[in-house]
Specification:
The chain has helices at 2-7, 11-37, 46-68, 83-90, 92-114, 124-145, 156-179, 189-216, 221-244, 252-257, 268-272, 295-298, 302-314, 319-331, 338-353, 365-372, 384-403, 406-429. By secondary structure, the protein is an all-alpha fold. Keywords: Membrane, Transmembrane, Transmembrane helix. Residues 424-435 have a biased composition (Polar residues). Residues 424-451 are annotated as: Disordered. InterPro entries: RGS, RGS_sf, RGS_subdomain_2.
C-alpha cells in the first residue's frame, strides 16, 4: 500500500481509470449519437462549439488528474510530464476552469435572453476568454512561484486561494441559474438545469474535499489512495452531469433521444392512418390569385407562399421568403406567452439577422441594428421594418418573374383542380330524393311507391 500510494499503480487506481474511461465514452456518445443515428444537422455558432469545448475541457480535466496525482507508475523524465504542465495549466485553465466558464457563458446568455429579454451585450466568443482570464492569471502566478513538490502537491498556503477560485465560479453559475428560476421552458428545461446543477455541485463538493485531503495529507498512504480514487471518480461524474445540463436550447441529445410525446389527432381517420379524401371533411375553396394585388396580401395565403418560396429557392434567393414564413409563424404565438416568443425570435435572429448567419437577409443597417439592440425580444413589431424592406425587395427582384414562371402555372393548375374537386364534392353531398326498393307493407319507412 505504501509503495503504490507514492508511485501509483494501486488496484483502486486502475478501477478509477476504468470508471473515468466509461464516463468519457458516455460523454462522447451524448454528443455524437444524435448526429450519427437521427441525422440531425449540425448546429451553428455557440450551439455547436461550446459543447465541443466542454468535451475538450472534460478530457483535459480527467487526463490531468491521472497524470499529476500518480495513478500510473512511470518516471517523469520529459518536460511534458512536468507537474506544472498537468497540475497547473491543463487541470486549471484548460480543464476545470474552461468547463465552468462554458457553463457560465451559457447561463449568461440564458439570463439576458429570457430575463432581460434582450440579446447578451457580449458575444460568447468574447465572453468565454474574458471569464477564463482569472484561471490563466492564477496558473501563471503558480508557474512563477513554483509551489509544487515532486509529487505535484502544493503547500497549505496555496490551498485556500485555489479552492476559493473554484468556489467563486460555482457560485456564479448557481447565481445565474437562480436568476431564471421563474421562467418555464419547454421540455422541462429549467428542472433539468437545476438537477444538473445540484448533481454537479455535490460532485464538486466531494471533489474539492478529496483534492484538499490529497494535497495536505501526503504522508498518510491509505488516505492518498482513497482521496485520489474519489478525486477521479467524482470528476468523471462531474463532467458527465455538466454536459447533460440543458441551456438556452436543450442539447440535441436530450431532444432526439428522449421518448416522443404522444400525438393528438383531430379525426379518427388521422389516427388510423387513413388519408383525408375530402368526402368526410369540408375543404376550403381555392383562393383566386390576382397578380395585381399587393404581394404582402398574397403571401398571407399559405399555398401561394409555398409556391412563391419554391420559385425563390430555385433562384437562390429564398432566404427572404423563408424569413417571412418564420415571422408569420411567430405572429401566431400569443403575446401573453413571452417565453415562446423570445425563443422563436432568438432563433430568427441567429438564422437571418446576425452578420454571417446561415440565411442572412439583405436589410438595411438601421433595421438590423434595431433588431440586434432591442430591449425586448418579445415585442410584436420586432421584425416589421425588416419585413417591409424584404417585401419591397421581393416585389422588385422576384414577383415579376414569378408570374411568368412554371411555378405559377403549376399553382394555377392545382388551384383549378381543387376548385373542380370541391364542386364535385358539393354535388355529391347535395340532398336527393330517397327511393326505396322495398314495396308494399314490407317498406319499413312506409313510403308511398310510384307505380
Amino acid at each position: 500500500m505504501a509503495s503504490c500510494a507514492v508511485d501509483g499503480g494501486c488496484a483502486s487506481d486502475y478501477i478509477a481509470i476504468a470508471i473515468s474511461a466509461v464516463c468519457f465514452i458516455l460523454l462522447l456518445s451524448r454528443l455524437i449519437l444524435p448526429f450519427a443515428i437521427h441525422k440531425i444537422p449540425l448546429p451553428k455558432r455557440s450551439s455547436f462549439w461550446i459543447p465541443v469545448i466542454q468535451i475538450f475541457a472534460s478530457f483535459n480535466l480527467l487526463l490531468s488528474i491521472v497524470m499529476s496525482v500518480n495513478f500510473l507508475k512511470f518516471e517523469k523524465r520529459h518536460w511534458w510530464q512536468s507537474c506544472y504542465a498537468w497540475a497547473v495549466w491543463i487541470e486549471a485553465p484548460l480543464g476545470f476552469g474552461l468547463l465552468l466558464s462554458c457553463r457560465i457563458s451559457q447561463a449568461f446568455q440564458l439570463y439576458y435572453i429570457f430575463v432581460k429579454r434582450c440579446l447578451p451585450p457580449i458575444r460568447s466568443y468574447i465572453f468565454l476568454p474574458l471569464i477564463l482570464l482569472p484561471w490563466i492569471a492564477g496558473a501563471a502566478l503558480m508557474h512563477i512561484k513554483k509551489p509544487l513538490n515532486y509529487r505535484c502537491h502544493m503547500g497549505t498556503q496555496w490551498i485556500i486561494p485555489v479552492v476559493s477560485l473554484h468556489a467563486i465560479y460555482v457560485a456564479i453559475l448557481v447565481g445565474f441559474t437562480g436568476a431564471v428560476r421563474h421562467i418555464e421552458f419547454r421540455f422541462d428545461e429549467l428542472r433539468d438545469l437545476w438537477q444538473g446543477i445540484l448533481v454537479s455541485a455535490s460532485s464538486i463538493g466531494v471533489w474539492v474535499a478529496a483534492y484538499i485531503l490529497n494535497e495536505i495529507h501526503d504522508d498518510i498512504s491509505w488516505l492518498q489512495v482513497v482521496s485520489r480514487f474519489a478525486l477521479l471518480v467524482t470528476a468523471s461524474i462531474l463532467v458527465l452531469s455538466f454536459f447533460s445540463i440543458s441551456s438556452s436550447q436543450p442539447l440535441l441529445s436530450q431532444i432526439s433521444l428522449r421518448k416522443r410525446e404522444p400525438l393528438a389527432f383531430e379525426t379518427m381517420g388521422q389516427a388510423l392512418g387513413i388519408p383525408n379524401s375530402g368526402l368526410l371533411l369540408p375543404r376550403e375553396p381555392a383562393p383566386v390569385i390576382d397578380p395585381n394585388e399587393p404581394l404582402d396580401k398574397l403571401l398571407m395565403n399559405k399555398r401561394f407562399r409555398q409556391s412563391f418560396m419554391s420559385f425563390a429557392d430555385s433562384c437562390l434567393a429564398g432566404e427572404s421568403v423563408h424569413f417571412y414564413e418564420e415571422v408569420h409563424e411567430l405572429g401566431k404565438i400569443p403575446v401573453d406567452d413571452p417565453v415562446r416568443r423570445i425563443y422563436m425570435a432568438r432563433h430568427i435572429i441567429d438564422k437571418y439577422i446576425t452578420a454571417g448567419a446561415t440565411m442572412e437577409v439583405n436589410i438595411s443597417h438601421r433595421s438590423r441594428q434595431a433588431i440586434l439592440t432591442t430591449s425586448n425580444l418579445a415585442q410584436p413589431n420586432l421584425f416589421n421594418d425588416a419585413l417591409n424592406e424584404l417585401i419591397q425587395l421581393m416585389k422588385m427582384n422576384l414577383a415579376n418573374d414569378y408570374w411568368s414562371s412554371t411555378y405559377f402555372m403549376k399553382f394555377k393548375d392545382e388551384a383549378s383542380l381543387r376548385s373542380h374537386e370541391l364542386q364535385q364534392m358539393t354535388s355529391w353531398n347535395s340532398p336527393t330524393p330517397r327511393l326505396s326498393s322495398v314495396r308494399g307493407v314490407d317498406d319499413p319507412f312506409h313510403q308511398e311507391q310510384e307505380p
